[in-house]
Every structure is written in structure tokens, then in C-alpha cells.
């Protein structure tokens, strides 16, 4: 009887965990990333704002006295890619399309974001925090570990039963 109950829980977990992970992402992170992306939009879709460059390349912008025109094509492409990623990857997760790939992309984004905050923006020790320190509220190490864990569920479990991934798979 215990084994049967545990087996049912395992089976239910395959549907509940990814669905709950996507709901949690929608409730707590999608709006955060979209709001961040909106701050990076300039006059048009291929014209990032000055703030986009300052957020992504803080030291480079300081070195050129905040004149983005002095930065190269590579900087522009990275800023555009980062901006579009903040719109597209959360949207894919929300609708459950290419979810595993989108979650992997989001983990990469969070890692780069964290390194930029720590190195580029010289985050202080309080913001960075430390693992295993009994203080669970640092903005970078503690908080973003939860983000990565949430996204890892989607990588390993997929989008869940209510998703475009499931709909596409059923048509194949």
C-alpha cells in the first residue's frame, strides 16, 4: 500500500511539479524580466536605450563617459540579444513552448546577470550574500539559486500537461 501511494505521488509529480514551476515563474519572475527588458528599449526595436548599455556593460560605459556610440558592434549585439531574451524566454516558458530550451537559456541569463551585478556593478557583500550562512535573503546568491532551481525543474520535467509542448508532442 505504501509503495502504491508513493508510485502515485511520483506519477502526479510529473504533472504537478512542472505546472507549479511555470505558475511560480509567471507569478514571480516573468513580470520582473519583462519590466527589466522594457528599460532597455530605445526608439525602435534595433535601437537599445542608453540604460541598456549601462546595465549590461557598466564599466565599458563608464570608460566611454556613457556615450554608447563609442562602443562597438559586439556590444550592440549583446545588448540587443539580452533585451530580446528577457522578452522571449519568459514568454516561451509561460506558454510552455520549447520550455526546456527556454529554461536553459534563462539559467544562462541569470548566471550572466549575476556576474554582471557582482563584477560590473560592484555589488556589496550584503547583496551578494553567501550560501550556508543561515541568512537566506541575499539578492544574488540566495534569491537566484531559487530561480535556477525553479528553472531546473522545467529542464528536467518539461512544461507539464497544460502546454504547447504537450500539444505539439501529441500531434507528432
Automatic annotation (TrEMBL):
It is a multi-pass membrane protein. The keyword Transferase does not apply. Keywords: Cell membrane, Membrane, Transmembrane, Transmembrane helix. Pfam families: DoxX. One of its GO terms (cellular component) is plasma membrane. Its main location: membrane. The keyword Membrane applies. It is found in: Cell membrane. The chain crosses the membrane at residues 87-112, 145-164. InterPro entries: DoxX, DoxX-like_oxidoreductase. Belongs to the DoxX family. This is DoxX family protein.
